[in-house]
Design a protein that fits this description.
mainly beta, six-stranded antiparallel sheet, globular
Length: 349
């Protein structure tokens, strides 16, 4: 078996640069709150869900195969006025280009993962693939829960040429999809088939686990690979997996520093070189308290701006200005002086 069989990044939930827990924000279509590369899409009137990274125990079946963590979605308060919710990963087109989706040479692909829930055994759950060409195209499959850890796998046939050729990054895998609005529910006739013009990620038979506080779904070891056979989960080197995640999001935290220097009499510049080339040029998001040390003086950073002249954000690094009146040409560094502070560069799909 070759390396990089798995087109899913961080399918074993090892990387969590943003943290290991977050409340799912209602009505935010693309929310990345905790575990890297996994986002939530949701809309409802009232209620609350939380995403957490769980540490597996030796008694857990996935642990016995070499997996250490899982993603759990827990109902804090039951959802009402509900349309849809799904945990998903958007796969960059360059990582699935050999699947030849929508061409005469298209390849089938296989999805596999470990799943657990505390809803009644025998309940129907869904996993789905969705993409968008001239309209939405969905492939929804169903599986029955067992009340304990279970290994789920399904093979997706090639998209037909009539459905069009995928030319953008609109390709996602969703697990535990919840849909109640009629526009988001797959009819039984469309389960286990590609359905054009369907914007759905779940079926009408799916168990409404989102209604009761304390219910949860949990999964790990997510793999999407070419062909019709589910092979063992590919555990890549940690440094490789981290770099794959950092292509989409990289951040400096309060343990980190970044070099800077006094460029003009009133402005200093800080420089950040990304550990990998990111997917696109990005501007930073600041959170928390920051200080600049140039010479013997510390200055609190309250704002940053692009320096102009073609500088600023790129896919390989970032240059930004901030107010400072220290000695021209002197060097120093910026640093975060509070736990939880960060400078984040986000190039997620």
């Amino acid at each position: 078996m070759g390396s990089f069989r798995n087109r899913i990044i961080n399918g074993d939930m090892r990387i969590a640069q943003r943290g290991t827990s977050n409340v799912v924000p209602n009505g935010v279509n693309n929310s990345y709150g905790s575990i890297d590369r996994w986002r939530t899409t949701a809309t409802w009137s009232a209620g609350q869900l939380t995403i957490t990274r769980q540490t597996l125990a030796a008694s857990d079946n996935p642990y016995q195969t070499g997996l250490q963590y899982s993603l759990r979605c827990t109902v804090n308060t039951g959802l009402t006025g509900f349309n849809y919710f799904y945990v998903n990963q958007v796969v960059e087109l360059l990582n699935i280009i050999d699947l030849n989706l929508g061409t005469p040479f298209g390849s089938p692909f296989t999805v596999s993962f470990w799943f657990r829930s505390n809803i009644p055994a025998g309940s129907t759950m869904c996993a789905a693939i969705q993409t968008y060409i001239s309209s939405s195209i969905s492939y929804v499959t169903e599986f029955k829960t067992t009340g304990t850890w279970q290994y789920v796998t399904f093979t997706v046939p090639p998209m037909t040429t009539a459905q069009g050729v995928l030319v953008s990054n609109d390709f996602l895998l969703a697990i535990g999809s919840l849909n109640t609005s009629s526009g988001f529910v797959t009819p039984s006739s469309n389960v286990n088939t590609w359905a054009s013009g369907i914007n759905s990620l779940g079926s009408a038979a799916m168990y409404p686990w989102w209604q009761n506080a304390g219910n949860f779904i949990e999964f790990t070891g997510v793999q999407l690979e070419r062909g019709t056979v589910a092979t063992p989960f590919e555990v890549r080197n940690y440094a490789q997996e981290l770099q794959l995640c950092q292509r989409y999001m990289f951040q400096l935290t309060y343990q980190d520093t970044s070099p800077c220097y006094q460029r003009t009499s009133v402005l200093a510049m800080f420089l950040v070189r990304f550990p990998v080339t990111m997917r696109s040029a990005v501007n930073p998001t600041l959170s928390g308290t920051f200080n600049c040390s140039i010479g013997a003086t510390d200055t609190t950073i309250s704002s940053i701006s692009a320096p102009g002249g073609g500088y600023g954000a790129s896919a390989t690094g970032s240059q930004y200005m901030f107010p400072s009146t220290q000695t021209l040409g002197n060097a120093g560094n910026i640093w975060m002086n509070s736990s939880g502070a960060y400078i984040r560069y986000d190039a997620e799909l």
